[in-house]
Amino acid sequence: xxxxxxxxxxxxxxxxxxxxxxxxxxxxxxxxxxxxxxxxxxxxxxxxxxxxxxxxxxxxxxxxxxxxxxxxxxxxxxxxxxxxxxxxxxxxxxxxxxxxxxxxxxxxxxxxxxxxxxxxxxxxxxxxxxxxxxxxxxxxxxxxxxxxxxxxxxxxxxxxxxxxxxxxxxxxxxxxxxxxxxxxxxxxxxxxxxxxxxxxxxxxxxxxxxxxxxxxxxxxxxxxxxxxxxxxxxxxxxxxxxxxxxxxxxxxxxxxxxxxxxxxxxxxxxxxxxxxxxxxxxxxxxxxxxxxxxxxxxxxxxxxxxxxxxxxxxxxxxxxxxxxxxxxxxxxxxxxxxxxxxxxxxxxxxxxxx
Length: 354
Ligand code: NAD
Hints:
Blueprint (H helix, E strand, L loop, with lengths): L1 E6 L5 H15 L3 E5 L4 H7 L5 H10 L1 E4 L13 H8 L4 E7 L12 E7 L9 E2 L4 H14 L9 E2 L5 H17 L4 E6 L8 H12 L6 E6 H10 L6 E4 L1 H14 L9 E3 L4 E3 L18 H13 L3 H17 L16 H11 L1
Parallel strand pairs: 1-2, 1-3, 3-12, 5-10, 8-9, 8-10
Antiparallel strand pairs: 4-5, 4-11, 6-7, 11-12
Helix pairs in contact: 1-10, 1-12, 6-7, 8-9, 10-11, 11-12
The structure holds nicotinamide-adenine-dinucleotide (NAD).
């Protein structure tokens, strides 16, 4: 038996997590679950969004499967997703975007892997509220140092990019490409505008590239990459991005393969791994039984592969493929012609197809 920490999440989290658990249990893959809450639900029971025992559980089991967790906008606690990634040094987020036959899309074939740096950039949370003493001091310092004329009501968020984290993620992308026999790595940046963050990212990547001559490499401005992705997505293969661009581009890629409901993901570090769908807690459909569980089920497939159970992962992916190709039963987000299938119906159909 392998014990995995399961964080069901909130919003649609418990619905898609329940469906995923049902499918993994039906595979009889020797997985047992240690279930913990995080976010709002953990505050209700333990007074904090990411209690120490949740981190402890992941550190012990080394692997977690996580549903989406709501982050309050503007105020309240910091994103527990970001906190988890930083606490466990989950420096690489990988989002494979593969189009399954039968899923409505503008394209016939899509197979892109987004590799996103997960620990720094604007997500590091170094922020100064516009009317705080710290922001006033920082504005004064910037004016004194470099004569930057910031308005007196300017809020500030910092974008740190380091050589160390860049090297780690770019090396990860090349190794992933090699291991999975991919054609090339495309690095996104905006080095012409942000010379000391994106510029450093680009220059550092170019030094790493020298060690991987057998994998193709190109660098592309992020705006140009957005254009290529919706024009000729087949031209892109493995895409490596800093944190914020990675967040945006992975949602864009999810849109190419049928939407967030079918887009899985994983966060990998040197010691721990957390598997989770790309989507959030979808408060607009929570509790209605309409959530598509496939993104989380496919995330569990990635987890099974990581845990050395490739046969079970293959069975899971084939069963998902069968249900999607069959097309008789489609959840609401995949635009069915008839009545949408519920979360439970999708899970049951996948279990039957195993
Ligand atoms: P979202 O991904 O929750 O929803 C965006 C849209 O996609 C909504 O219309 C939603 O109904 C739809 N959608 C998402 N998942 C779906 C599914 N499985 N099936 C069918 N439709 C689905 O994004 P949001 O509304 O920007 O975020 C809601 C909350 O989730 C926020 O608090 C955000 O911070 C959080 N969030 C958490 C994670 C995470 O836990 N990893 C990731 C992203 C967002």
